[in-house]
Amino acid sequence: MIQRPKEELLEEELLEEVLREEVLREEVLRVWLSEVSISGFRNLASQTLGFDPKANLIFGPNGSGKTNLLESIAVLAAGRSFRTFQDDQLLAFDAPHFQVVGRAQSGVRLQSGESSPKPRKYLARVYFSPAERKHYFLDKHEVPKRSLYAGWLPITVFLLDDRRLVAGPPAQRRAFADDAVGKVSRTYRFVLSEFRRVLAQRNALLRRRGKDDELAVWEKRLAEQAKEVSQRRNAYWKDFAPNFERMSRRFLPADEIALQYHPNVREGDDYRDILACSRQTERRMGFTCRGPHRDDFRILLNSRSLRAFGSYGQQRLVALALSLAEAETALAAGRKPVYLMDDVAAELDDANARQLFNLIGSKGQLFYASARPPAVEGRRFHVRQGKIRQV
Ligand SMILES: Nc1ncnc2c1ncn2[C@@H]1O[C@H](COP(=O)(O)OP(=O)(O)O)[C@@H](O)[C@H]1O
Ligand SMILES: [Mg+2]
């Protein structure tokens, strides 16, 4: 049985310093997962697996645990699952806690001509028990917040039902966008978590029917944070849009695809003013209804809403293009992502599937799950009733 080792909680100030340093260094690195140890997670047996830096092909019958393995890697990298927000569901039916420990390495340089940065080793761990809840550790330090932990290992997840990204509610697209920006900028993750903290303060005050001058204090801070959030998002979308255009043209060459970002507060509008004017209504509602937490983006297919008029197939291919564009943008920002793909090619026709594998090629580390392994090179893992064996 694994005990949770006692590690000191990293002081927030110190953490902030560490993060800022990290941002300044702007390393052009490839980070890849070399080893994972899993225990108490879904139906997976307690085991340690060593991975290939390029391609890992996971195969086995339905219900054997392939998606669970990808999910455990996502939990390790992002601190949460792509399938559920309820951590209790991740816990194996008879286990008191789960833990995913991972070792990753960086230091392989991309094309740039400068001298090679020192390779770095990462040791990360996510622990959960129903009583203690979830805890995140990076290099022996506990990281106090998921938002700060997430993204130490940038991942891009492709799922069969990613159609939700374009066809689902705005919250899904916001989560996608925030994850995407957060992956290329730790500062963004920090600023966003500050924005959310201040937002929660203002909301609490609204519900207490706080006075105008009390609200004004929080609104000033909220407007400052909102500006930082929006600036970083804008900068990101400038890089992201052309990547998305290229990807969608590749998968849907016959269609005209347009991406429109809809900020809830437009550039040039005075957010403090807007907040001050909404106090009366928002006291009744008990929350802040205007601000960057309400941004959304829309995709037009031949000038019509893809969400309303696109076929399932078109929606799925656009969702794939979004994920690939996100991965491209992270790549250009200097981080080679780890790709988690759950049987995506099964849904694509042969030409699109080949496109996909070629695109990913040597761009990052691939974990690919499917009933049968595709005909590409890589380390093969067979899954049977939660036991994973390299073959
Ligand atoms: N919390 C859990 N504890 C134990 N087993 C679980 C848990 N959640 C799901 N499972 C089991 O995991 C299996 C599904 O694994 P999954 O990775 O989705 O399969 P696949 O190989 O088809 O992707 C099912 O047998 C299911 O009962
Ligand atoms: Mg599956």
Describe this protein's structure.
This protein has a domain at 1-154 and 337-391: Rossmann fold. Helices cover 42% and strands 22% of the residues. The protein is built from eleven helices and 17 strands. Helix 6 (186-207) crosses helix 7 (212-251). The longest helix has 40 residues, at 212-251. The radius of gyration is 22 Å and the shape is globular. The relative contact order is 0.17. Bound molecules: adenosine-5'-diphosphate and magnesium ion. Residues 42-43, 60, 62-68, 89, 91-93, 383 line the site of adenosine-5'-diphosphate.
Brief summary:
This protein is of the alpha/beta class and 391 residues long.
List cofactors, ions and other ligands.
adenosine-5'-diphosphate, magnesium ion
Low-confidence stretches: 1-12, 18-28, 109-114
For this structure, what is the CATH class of the domain at 1-154 and 337-391? Alpha Beta
Would you identify the CATH H-level superfamily of the domain at 1-154 and 337-391?
P-loop containing nucleotide triphosphate hydrolases
What fold name stands as the CATH topology of the domain at 1-154 and 337-391?
Rossmann fold
The number of helical elements comes to: 11
Characterize the overall form.
globular
The CA-CA distance between the termini, in Å, is 28 Å
Question: Can you summarize the main beta sheet?
Answer: 6 strands, antiparallel
Content of β-strand: 15-25%
- Order of strands across the main sheet: 3-2-5-6-7-8
Number of strands: 17
Helix content: 40-55%
Q: Quote the average pLDDT.
A: 86
